[in-house]
Every structure is written in C-alpha cells, then in structure tokens.
Write a structure and sequence with these properties.
By secondary structure, the chain is α/β, with parallel strands linked by helices. The chain is built from 9 helices and 11 strands. The protein has 2 domains: about 140 residues, 3-Layer(aba) Sandwich (D-Maltodextrin-Binding Protein, domain 2), CATH 3.40.190; about 90 residues, D-Maltodextrin-Binding Protein, domain 2 (3-Layer(aba) Sandwich). It has a 6-stranded mixed sheet with strand order 2-1-3-10-4-11. The C terminus is likely disordered.
Length: about 260
Amino acid sequence: MDGKIRVGAVSYLNTKPLLYGIGRSDIIKDIELVIDYPSRIASMLLNDELDMGLVPVAVIPRMKNYFVNGDICIGSDGPVASVCLFSEVPIDKVERVLLDYQSRTSVQLARVLLRHYWKVDPILEDAGPDFREHIHGATAGVVIGDRALQQRKVSPYIYDLGEAWKDMTKLPFVFAAWISNKPLDPAFIAEFNLANKKGLQHLADVVKENPYTDFDLYAYFTKFLDYTLDDAKRKGLDLFLHYLQGNAAEANSANNAKKEYFRP
C-alpha cells in the first residue's frame, strides 16, 4: 500500500497499554491513528475510512472481507469488570434492558446471555448517551468501558458479561481485535504486533500515565483483561460468531413472518 496505513483504536482505558507501545515504536510513523469509541471505529472500517481497526468483533458478519491481524486482542478469560449488565433488582426481575450505543459486541453478547444463560426475556432497547440515568427499578442497562468501571460504584447488582460467557461456554471471550478490510503487508503487521506487546511489557508505566480513581488499573490490566489472542480465544470467537448467525437467521425469519402477515 502506498502512503500511511489508516488505523483506528478505541478511546477506553483498556487500549492504553496498546497505544503506549504503538506511540513509542517506529511504527507510529507509518500510520494515521484515529481514536474514538468502538462502534464509531467499526463504522469507519465498514465505510473504508480505515484500513485496520481495533473493532468490536460483532462487526465481522457485516464485512465483505475481513482479516484478523496479529495475536493481540481485547479479551477476558472470566470477569472483565468493564462490560456488565447493571441493575437495581436481580436479573429475573428485570423488565427492560437499555443497550449501550458504543459497542455492538457487548450488546450482542448481552442478547446471547440473556436468552441462553440467564434465560430471561426482557424488553431490549437501544439507548442514547444519557441512558445510565435511567438505570433504576426494573430497568437495567448494559454499560461498557470506563463508564462501566464508574457504574460499579452505583448499581447494587452487577452481572459481568465476561464472567457469564466463561461460565456458560467454558471459553474466554474476544471483545475486540485488530481487524482489517483488506490484506496488509505481513512485515507491517509483525512490527505493529510487536509495538502492541511493547506496551504490555510496561504496564506500571501505563498506569502512571493514566491516573484513575474509580478502579485499580493495574489489576484491571492484569487480572481482568487478557490481551493474548490464543487458540482458546479464537474458539470462543468462533462460537460467538455462530450465535450471531443464529440470531440473524431468527431475525430474518421473524421479519419474513411479519411481511407475510401484513401482506395485502
């Protein structure tokens, strides 16, 4: 490819170690870096405004071509802390769930878990920017990222989606990976992957650069997040994509049934 490679990354704390390494490696000279919230980065990748992005994996079924690059991801092998369903009542008493607008993966994961793990059927509603204010009574909310770490101090019931997935499937979960919409130079990917790992080798420095009082960041980076895209996570990713295919097939079937019902 000619010119710089357009790369997008999410703006949450969970990417700080990766951005630390990228910013301190020579690879930074070869890229144009865009930082935004997950669903925005995913949209840019779909619209070919980016060549590669650290995007929610739920975007994969919407891509004509996709390539998962390197062996670094945003994942968990149990509780993740920053992707949770928050409520004032137990899960079986929840009547409505507000869905965070910033990440398709977390929303789709919540849908899978509500149906197959908790086996409940609340009303699901796409939420706007101020939706955390409406988490009360029988209305719960799926909150992700830094705001989820803050919400942990507010809501009495916290249902960690990473933990629930692990309990249901016995597999880890991949929330986001470095995905491109075209094949990229293997030499670039190798150097980019090393830059990511450089940041993971300096977590204490990353914590110092990002003072945060709502959660222990070092514990977050080491005990809750798991950045290695290994075989177990790839199996977890494949299973999640299988669930998404099932959801899509059911949605199409329901839409077709509605069309048949309302046909003049």
